[in-house]
Amino acid sequence: MHDTPPAGQHPLYVTQPDLPPLADFVASLEQIWDSKFLTNGGRFHQQLEAALCDYLGVEHVALFNNGTTALLTALQALGIEGEVITTPYSFVATSHALLWNRLQPVFADIDPLTFNLDPDRIEAAITPRTTAIMPVHCYGTPCDVERIGAIARKHGLKVIYDAAHAFGVRQDGRSILRHGDLSVLSFHATKVFTTFEGGAIVCHDAATKARIDQLKNFGIVDETTVVAAGINGKMNEVSAAFGLLQLGRVDAALARRREVAARYRRLLAGVKGITPPAEPGHEANHGYFPILVGSSYPLDRDTLFQRLREHGIVARRYFHPLISAFPMYRDLPSAAPENLPQAARVASQVICLPIFPALADEDIARIAGLIASA
């Protein structure tokens, strides 16, 4: 694996943050410094929660120091026990959050077109110990929320969406984050909206929001009252201030990402054996641009991946290997490869190409040209 590009070239990473002007960020830092209020729900924290509710079109947002802590807390807030059906095709934080809560992940296979949990496989995986479903809106593509919701209601299950990729995604004009009991966002530096590190839980009512806020602050109600074994998951004022600046730029960033994705599609459309993502049938955020390298392409996936790396293009095999292949999961009955044929196939073929607002048209052409020229 070669992360170092040839001499004179800068590497093109799969994603890079869209940074606000330094002067604006310094001005925010000066306000924080003057206030002497660095964390514990300060002014910037409160402003960002309100601004995100407005921008995303949701009722309640609870900010966190990162998306993984938010996932951990979401499971705690709903009192999830026993087994949770989830996807093997995701970043490991999805299932790690289950293990940290002493829950058993049950892996179900994915839909080969959307890369999201297949509702038929979800229903087949339900047992008397199942208490929840934790799907992922993979690459920001919405899950089949209607069918998943119907399955959950039929079997009395909770639904927690790992929406780390789904910031700003809308379907039928409404936020995808409105579905399920809770949705969890990540604001990591690799995401379309970032607070350096950060995350959030989206919920539907004030009582649940109050419960989540207690859990992310050690279970504290007031100076003398602690009601739960909570965690320190609070977002600090510096990250919140950065998020407010980012929010003012996010529409322009999403528009440029849409242009980059469209340009990739045009340039790769005629390359035999390369399958780019279909034009989305929803309001997408274009956070990732995955391609599948099929058997009719002259190079296998890993050889193409290496070729890109050697030219300073830091593509990623998101998600390879499957979560179910890691040692803490591979002995689970649901992790057996024969249980996950679609996920295994996609994981063996996928490469995510660089996509970010500052990616120049000539670099897009260079990347597509390297793929086509093989």
TrEMBL record:
Signal peptide: none annotated. SUPFAM superfamilies: PLP-dependent transferases. CDD domains: AHBA_syn. One of its GO terms (molecular function) is transaminase activity. Gene3D superfamilies: Aspartate Aminotransferase, domain 1 (3.90.1150.10), Type I PLP-dependent aspartate aminotransferase-like (Major domain) (3.40.640.10). Keywords: Aminotransferase, Pyridoxal phosphate, Transferase. It comes from the Bacteria. It holds the Pfam family DegT_DnrJ_EryC1. PANTHER family: PROTEIN RV3402C, TRANSAMINASE. Belongs to the DegT/DnrJ/EryC1 family. This is DegT/DnrJ/EryC1/StrS family aminotransferase. It comes from Massilia agri.
